């Protein structure tokens, strides 16, 4: 991390801890440089960074002061509604040319992890031997399944390596699970809002949906049980931890009850747990599958969000659907599996996760602070305790118009309409927070807040 950013983060920490208050006068640039033992240019960069983030204000002929803080926003409102059968439509696909830091939910891979991965691939190549002459086993390499079982066992989620099937990412695992436990025309219960990629898969498989309202601690399980009792839905599909896009994590009680409902009504529930390990604190929650006693929860995960989307490697614990699931598996490139098994067994993955959780915990407040200062009054922003996204609700916003304006401006965002088959969330949007809060991110946020401010009849706020 650049020295001026390190100093800026220390300054922000002092404000949060109450050691500095709004209106406090700060040292001059030369005094600050001498105090910290840095160059004047580093001091200038530090103060400029703090001013751009809204923590510092420069007053002509008076000096520098801690800026007054705007009150934090509330989280989004989850309006109740009655769940009904609907047909998902294939969501609008953003142009491939739009790939900015705010669009797709993803991390930037830091150099330490990149170097460790390179070492794991070199060791895997030396250890592969004759396995490179054979097609990969459909269930996946035992060494990777054992590494994953050991890794999650250390998190309190014990499993046998033979319960797992290795596949091409979490979306591939979810799609295969849907093919195994549903038929075209069946209805699947999903959360509302729901990740647009899942809506696309459901539409491709000619499945209908029932959107279940979100709550602050999960989803409306009473409505879900109502549909299970009536036989309206033939399966469930839920992200349960650090949900995309709403940022909610189901409480332990919710996860336990979800597993109980799946077993009581003997209806498969597919758990998309791709964000499980991306808490913004050291504690990793347990999945709903932990509470499953009859094998009705199909647990899916991957390394795409925690490590890199380029590997396209994930896994599934199909439970009682193991046999038909593994019959559909084709195998994943052997060298990839061996390298990632080495990465996990060497401890590099655990170290990577610790660094990643720490980075996300540091980045999120910077995104939130910027948005609070630059968005119109009355905006609501999610306050997730994990994951990679923020969900924004802007009263009166025309999300479709914002989407068109953003595309014309080359700005990559996801508007609320993409996450539902209904007419809800037209005043919402989702942004990624997986990248460091640096100049490319700040530039895109400034452009986004400017567009929203114009549509709300206001300016973009201080740049």
From TrEMBL:
Which UniProt keywords are present, listed alphabetically? Aminotransferase, DNA-binding, Pyridoxal phosphate, Transcription, Transcription regulation, Transferase
Q: Which residues form the HTH gntR-type domain?
A: 1-69
> Could you tell me one molecular function GO term of this UniProt entry?
transaminase activity
Please give the superkingdom of this protein's source. Bacteria
TM helices/strands, residue ranges: none
Which SMART domains does its entry note? HTH_GNTR
Keyword presence, Transferase: yes
Keyword Zinc part of the UniProt annotation: no
Q: Which family does it belong to?
A: In the C-terminal section; belongs to the class-I pyridoxal-phosphate-dependent aminotransferase family.
The protein in question is named PLP-dependent aminotransferase family protein
Its source organism is: Zobellella iuensis
């Amino acid at each position: 991390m650049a020295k001026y950013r390190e100093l800026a983060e220390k300054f922000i920490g002092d404000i949060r801890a109450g050691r500095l208050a709004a209106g406090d006068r700060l040292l001059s640039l030369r005094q600050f440089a001498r105090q910290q033992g840095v160059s004047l240019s580093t001091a200038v960069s530090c103060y400029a960074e703090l001013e751009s983030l809204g923590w510092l204000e420069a007053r002509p002929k008076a000096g520098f002061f801690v800026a007054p803080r705007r009150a934090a926003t509330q989280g989004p409102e989850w309006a109740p509604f009655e769940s009904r059968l609907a047909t998902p439509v294939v969501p609008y696909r953003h142009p491939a040319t739009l790939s900015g830091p705010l669009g797709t939910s993803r991390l930037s891979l830091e150099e330490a992890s990149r170097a460790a991965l390179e070492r794991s691939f070199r060791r895997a190549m030396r250890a592969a031997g004759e396995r490179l002459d054979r097609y990969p086993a459909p269930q996946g390499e035992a060494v990777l399944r054992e590494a994953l079982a050991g890794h999650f066992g250390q998190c309190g989620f014990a499993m046998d390596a033979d319960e797992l099937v290795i596949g091409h990412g979490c979306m591939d695992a979810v799609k295969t699970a849907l093919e195994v436990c549903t038929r075209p025309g069946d209805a699947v219960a999903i959360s509302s809002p729901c990740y647009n990629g899942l809506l696309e898969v459901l539409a491709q498989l000619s499945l209908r949906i029932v959107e279940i309202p979100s709550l602050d601690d999960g989803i409306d399980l009473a409505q879900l049980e109502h549909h299970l009792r009536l036989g309206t839905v033939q399966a469930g599909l839920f992200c349960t931890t650090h949900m995309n896009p709403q940022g909610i994590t189901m409480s332990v009680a919710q996860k336990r009850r979800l597993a109980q409902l799946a077993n009581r009504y003997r209806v498969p529930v597919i758990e998309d747990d791709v964000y499980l390990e991306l808490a913004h604190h050291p504690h990793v929650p347990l999945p709903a599958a932990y509470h499953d006693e009859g094998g009705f929860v199909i647990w899916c995960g991957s390394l795409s969000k925690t490590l890199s989307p380029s590997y396209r490697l994930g896994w599934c614990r199909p439970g009682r659907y193991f046999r038909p699931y593994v019959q559909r598996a084709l195998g994943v490139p052997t060298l990839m599996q061996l390298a990632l098994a080495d990465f996990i067994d060497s401890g590099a993955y655990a170290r990577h996760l610790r660094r990643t959780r720490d980075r996300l915990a540091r980045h999120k407040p910077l995104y939130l602070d910027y948005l609070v200062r630059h968005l119109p009054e009355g905006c609501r922003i999610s306050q997730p305790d994990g994951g990679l996204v923020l969900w924004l609700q802007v009263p009166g916003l025309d999300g479709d118009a914002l989407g068109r304006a953003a595309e014309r401006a080359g700005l990559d965002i996801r508007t609320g309409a993409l996450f539902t088959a209904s007419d809800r969330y037209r005043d919402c949007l989702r942004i990624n927070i997986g990248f460091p809060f640096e100049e490319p991110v700040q530039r895109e946020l400034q452009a986004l807040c400017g567009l929203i401010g114009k549509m709300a009849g206001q300016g973009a706020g201080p740049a």
